[in-house]
Predict the 3D structure of the following.
Amino acid sequence: MGTDTTPGRPLGVAAVGYAFMGKAHSNAWRNVGAFFDVPTFSQQVLVGRDGAAVKAAAHRYGWAEAATDWQEVIRRDDIDIVDICAPGWLHAEIAVAALEAGKHVLVEKPLANTLAESEAMVAAAAAARARGVQSMVGFNYRRVPALALARELIAEGRLGTIRQVRASYLQDWLADAEAPMSWRLRKETAGSGALGDIASHAIDQIQHLTGAAATAVSGRLHTFVTERTGPDGPEAVTVDDAAWATLSLGSGAVGSVEVSRIASGRKNALRLEVYGSHGSLAFDLENPNELQFYDGSVPGRTAGSTRILTTEADHPYAAAWWPPGHVIGWEHTFTHQIRDFLNHIAAGTAPSPSFEEGLQVQRVLAAIEESAASNSVTVPLG
Amino acid sequence: MGTDTTPGRPLGVAAVGYAFMGKAHSNAWRNVGAFFDVPTFSQQVLVGRDGAAVKAAAHRYGWAEAATDWQEVIRRDDIDIVDICAPGWLHAEIAVAALEAGKHVLVEKPLANTLAESEAMVAAAAAARARGVQSMVGFNYRRVPALALARELIAEGRLGTIRQVRASYLQDWLADAEAPMSWRLRKETAGSGALGDIASHAIDQIQHLTGAAATAVSGRLHTFVTERTGPDGPEAVTVDDAAWATLSLGSGAVGSVEVSRIASGRKNALRLEVYGSHGSLAFDLENPNELQFYDGSVPGRTAGSTRILTTEADHPYAAAWWPPGHVIGWEHTFTHQIRDFLNHIAAGTAPSPSFEEGLQVQRVLAAIEESAASNSVTVPLG
Amino acid sequence: MGTDTTPGRPLGVAAVGYAFMGKAHSNAWRNVGAFFDVPTFSQQVLVGRDGAAVKAAAHRYGWAEAATDWQEVIRRDDIDIVDICAPGWLHAEIAVAALEAGKHVLVEKPLANTLAESEAMVAAAAAARARGVQSMVGFNYRRVPALALARELIAEGRLGTIRQVRASYLQDWLADAEAPMSWRLRKETAGSGALGDIASHAIDQIQHLTGAAATAVSGRLHTFVTERTGPDGPEAVTVDDAAWATLSLGSGAVGSVEVSRIASGRKNALRLEVYGSHGSLAFDLENPNELQFYDGSVPGRTAGSTRILTTEADHPYAAAWWPPGHVIGWEHTFTHQIRDFLNHIAAGTAPSPSFEEGLQVQRVLAAIEESAASNSVTVPLG
Amino acid sequence: MGTDTTPGRPLGVAAVGYAFMGKAHSNAWRNVGAFFDVPTFSQQVLVGRDGAAVKAAAHRYGWAEAATDWQEVIRRDDIDIVDICAPGWLHAEIAVAALEAGKHVLVEKPLANTLAESEAMVAAAAAARARGVQSMVGFNYRRVPALALARELIAEGRLGTIRQVRASYLQDWLADAEAPMSWRLRKETAGSGALGDIASHAIDQIQHLTGAAATAVSGRLHTFVTERTGPDGPEAVTVDDAAWATLSLGSGAVGSVEVSRIASGRKNALRLEVYGSHGSLAFDLENPNELQFYDGSVPGRTAGSTRILTTEADHPYAAAWWPPGHVIGWEHTFTHQIRDFLNHIAAGTAPSPSFEEGLQVQRVLAAIEESAASNSVTVPLG
C-alpha cells in the first residue's frame, strides 16, 4: 500500500460510484483538461459493486478500467486520488481508508449521514493534511460562476454590510403522492430528507457567500405525504419532505432557509437572495448563467436589478469556455470543482470546502433537527 | 345623530385622513363609479386636523367639503359611510363611534394597534351588523385581479391539495442607516414595524388564498439599524426592521413569512407562492398584472409556469377596465375594494374582510411577537 | 362664437366621443388635477351622437353636461378646449372648426385618415398657434414614464450614438379567423389596418426617442385573413393585418418596425429596443413600469441589462403618484398627456407632439404603403 | 485511398480546424458517447496548419493524433468521417475531396463563401450519397432541445397555421468602434458580415421550424462603423454590421430577420417568435433551456405564455442528460448534432440539414444581398 512517487507521472484517479453523481463527476474528469490548465492525470478506474454494470459505465464515461473492490483500488500504487460518489452511508469508511492510504479524497456532500462519521472523517483529513494529502467535500454550487462572482462582490464590499440572506431550494419530484417509496425516504438509510439533501447546499451557500457561520438556529421539518407504496407495499415515510429554518450568523446577519421536494413546478430551484446595506444579489439555479445585482451606489434614476450574464472573460471560470453569451450547463460546477481540487493538490495547499466545513454544515443541520423536535425553539451552535 | 333615510338619496361618504392612504382611498371613491355599477353616492367630506391642508386636499381629491372634527361629521344625517384612513392608534375610537352612529365603516389595515382595541371594534361591528350597518377592513391586496384569480383557482381545486405557501414582502426604504427616526419606528406609536405594516398583508393572503387559518406559529423579529437620528437627535429604534415566521394552517398546509424594510433593491415586493399537490401559483406585487400558474394537469412536455396577464374580460374585475394587455395600477386595489364594499351595503350583506378577520390577523401577529420573545418556540393560536 | 376671457375662469373642456378613447381621455381629465398642479379647468361637456348614451357616459365619466351637436359646442363661450376622441374620419372637420373658433385642440392619433386632411389640420393649427391657440396630437406613449426616461437617457448621451432601433407592436385580437368583419377592416373607413393604428405609435417612438426623422423607408403589408363575416355575410378584408418596414433616419441610424394584430398571445406588446454605441434600452408596454437599460460604461464584470422600475421620485411624472414600487396603469399615459397639454396652454407655449409631428408620421406611413405597393422598393421622404 | 471495411472497426474520425469551432466540435466528439448510444468511433486525428499548435490542441481536446496535411489524412484507410471546422473559404475544397475519397463529411455553416462553391459541394454530396457516403451541414441550433421541441409542436399543429415568424440574432462584439480590423470584416475573406455568419442561422430556423422555404425576399445591409484599424493601419470595413430582411414563405407565412453585431448588451441573442392561428412560441439562445409556448386552446382565464424548461425526459435529447431542472450548455447543440450524424451513418440514411439545405440558405442570403443592392426591392427565389 502506497503511492508511486515517480516525478511527472500522471496523477491516477479512481472514482467510486457510477449513478447520478458518478456520471456527473466522470463528466468533469473527462473534460476538465480540455478547458483548464491542470496537472496531468489519468482517469484510471471506476469502482462499483456490479461488475458488468461498472465495466459498461467505465467504458461509457471514459475510465481506463473498472473494478468492484474499492479497498483493493485504494491500495494501488498508481492511484493518487479517490473521488467518492457512493451513497452517504459509505462515505466515512471509504474516505478514512483512502486518506490513511495516502490518497487525496474528494467526497460528495453531505459529508456523511451522522455527526460521528463526519467527525471521524475530519480527524482523518486533518492527519492526512499534515502529511500533504488533501481532501475536499463536494459543495459544487460554490463553483457556479454566478455564485463565485456573488461571493467576490460581497467580499469586496459591493453590497455593504450583509444583513439578510434568503435561501430556498425547491424541487417537485415528490409532489406526486403516488411516487414510490425508496431508500431515500427512510431515515435509517438517508439520514434525512430534503434537509440533508438540499438544505445542506442552501446552508453552505449562506455561510460561504457571507463568510459567516451560523451561531443559532430555529427549524421545522414536515412530511406532507406520510405513507408511500414501494415494492413491499405501503410504508411510512420517515424523512422530511420540506424544511424551514432561520439562522443567526456570527456577523449579525440573519439567514432563512426553505427547502422542499413537493414544490410543484419547481425542478431545481436553488434560489439565493443576499441583502446588504448598499446592494443586493439574487440567483436561481434553474437559470445558472445569470446573477441579478442591485448596486445601491447607482443613482436612483437608473438603479435597478442588473441581469449579469456570467459568460464574460472576467467572470469566474468563464474565460476557459465559450465567447460571451454562450452559456454553460449545470454539470460544469463539477468541472470547476475538479479543476480547483487538482490545482490545490499540485500546489500542496488545502482545498475548500474542507471536511471541517462539511462537518460544520452537518452540525447546523443537526441543530435544525433538534430545534424542529423541540417546537422550533432556538438551538445555539457551539 | 342619525341617518337620512330618504329613498334614492345618494350615500354620503366621509373619509378621515388625507395622507398616503387618504390619497389612495380618495382616488378610489373618485373613480369607482366610472368603471363599475355601484349604488349612487356622494364623495361628501374629507376630515383632517389641519383646516387649511384638509381643505386643499378635499379640493384636489374630489371631496365636496372639508372638515376638522370627525366627531361632528359622524353625527351628520347626510353621512352614511365613514372611511378611516387615519393612523392606527385612532382606528378604534373613530370606528366604534361611527358604527354606533349607524354609519357603515371601512377602516385601513391593521385593524388597530392593540388586541384590546381590535376586540372592541369587533364587538361594535357585530352589534352594528345586527342593525344592518356594515364594516370592512382594508386588506386591499385581496382585490388585485391576479390574487383574486389565484384564490378562485385554488378554491376550484386547480392546484390540488395546498401544502406549502410562501409569502414575503420586501421593501427597502429603511435600508439606508441614515434614514431618519420617525413615529413609525417607535413601538408606542406604531405598535410594531415591518410585522404589523406588511406581514399583516402577507398573513392575510396566506389565510385568504388557502381558506385556512393559522393554528400555531413560530416567529422571529430583528432590528438591523438599532438607532436612528430624528429632529431630537439619536434615538433607539424600538420596532422590527424584518420579521420571519412559519405558520401551521388548519388545513395541514404550512406557510412561511418573511418581511423586511431593509431589503435593498426591493421596492414593494409582496411575493406569494402557493404549492399544491397538482399545481402552483406565484405572484409579485411589483408586477401586479401577472399571475404565474403551473398547471400540473398539463403533460410534462408542455408543462411549465404560465404567465397569465390578468387583463382578459373573464379575469376578476378586469372587464370594467381596458382591452386585454392594457394594465392597471396598484391604486385600483382600492377601487375594487370600494366597489365591493358599496355593493354589499346596497345588498345588505356583510363584506369581507370583516373586522373579525382583521382581529384574527392581529392575533397571528401577536403570537409571532410572543414566539419571537421566547426564542421562536411555537405558540398555538386558540 | 368666441371665448369668455374672464380672468381666473376655469378652462372649459369639451370632449367629443365616449367609446374606448373617450373613456380613456375622460379618465385623464377626471384625475389629472388630483395628482398634478394644472390650471383650473372644468370637465364641462361630453359630445356624442346618441343622446341617451352620451348622457349616461357623461354622468359616469364625470362630465357636467352631455351634448349631441359638436358644432354648437365649439361655439360656446365657456368652452376653451376641445378633446377629439371621435373616429379618424371626423378628426379634420372638428379640429379645423374648433381651432378656427379659437379653441385649443387635442386630437387622438392618427391625425387623420388622409394626408390631405392632415395637411388642412396642420394649416389650421399653424394659423391658430399664431393667435395663441394650441394644439396637440395624442401619441400618448411618449408619456409612459419609462419611455420619457428612455428619451432623457438617449438625449443625455448615455447610450452614445444611436445606431439601431427596433420597434414592434404585436396584438392578437384578429388572430381568430372567426373574429367578425367591422369598419376597422375596410380601407374606406379605417384608412389602413395595423399600419395606421399601431405602426403609427411605433414610428412616432422611433423618431421621438432618437430625435431623428425618417428619410427613406422600405415597407410591406400583409393580410392573413382575407375574408371575414359581418352582419351582411362574408366580405373581403381590405386593410393589413400586419406590416413591416425599415427606416433610414436622418441621424444615420436604422429603424425597423413590425406590427401585427394576429400575433397569438401578444395582447398589447409595443416593444422598443434602442442600440447605441455605448449602451441600449428595451421596453415592453405589457410591463410599462419597467425600462431595461444596458449601460456600456459599467465594467464588464457587473454589466448587464438593468431593470429600472420607474416609480422613483426622480423618474418622469412619478413623484406625483405613489411610493416606489407601487406601479401605475396604462391609462395614465393620457393623464400625463393632459397635464402637459394644460400646462402649455397656461404658459402660452406650443405642446408636442404638434399636428406637424402628426402629419410627418402620416407621411412615413404613406411612404410605407407606397413601398409596399411597389415590391418594397425604398421610398425617399421629402 | 479508400476505407478499411473491417466489420465492427470503430469509425475513424478526423477533424480539420481547432479554433472556436474546432474546440466546440471536439468537445462534442469527446462527450457524445457518454450520453448517447452511438456507433463506436475513434476520435482519431485533428488537422491544422501549425504543427506544434495542432499537436497541443489534439492532446487537450482528446484526439489520438495530430496532423498538418488534410489531404493526406483524407486518404487514410482508417478515417471514415471528416469534420470540417476550417474557415469558410476552405470548405469546398476539403469537403469535395473528402466525399470523393468516400468519407462522410460534416461541415460547419455557412456551407461555403460562394454559391459556386456551394453548388460544387452539393454535386459531390449527391454523388457520394448514391454511394452510401453521408454529409451534413452544421446548423447546430436545430438541435437545441427547445428548438427541436418547437419544431415538433409546430409540426403537430399545436400552433395552427403558421402566419408570422420573427427571427433576430443580436450580438455586440463590434459595438465598440475601436474593435480592430480583421479578416472577418473583409468581403474577400469573409464573404459577408452578420448576414452570412448569423442571419444564416436565423433563416435556417425560419425555414426549418415552419417546414416552408422562402420564395421571395426583400433585404437591407448596413455598416455602421465603416473604418477600423488593424495591424496595417485604418482600413475600410467591407462587410455588413447588421442586416434586415422579410421573407415570403411558400406556405403563405411571412418571416422577418434582423441581425446585428453592434447591438450593445446582446451577447448571443438568437431570438425566435412563431405566431400561428392558434398559438405561438418564443425562444432566446441566451436562455437556451427554455421555450415559451402560448397554447391558444387553453381558455382565456388561464391562458398565457408558458415557460417550458426543456429538461424533462420527454423533451428532445433531454433524457440522456441530467434530472429535470439541471440545465445543459450551448455546446451540446454540437453533441446532439454528432449523435444524429453518427446514427444516420450507421443506419445508412441521409442526415439533415443536407448540403442541399445549406445551399438553399446560401441562395436566400444571396437574394438578400441582391435586394439590398437594389433599394430593397423584392427578389424572387427560383
Observations:
- Chain C touches chain B through 35 residues (CB under 8 Å).
- The CA atoms of residues 20 and 41 of chain C lie 23 Å apart.
- Chain C has two domains: 11-141, 145-287+289-328+359-379.
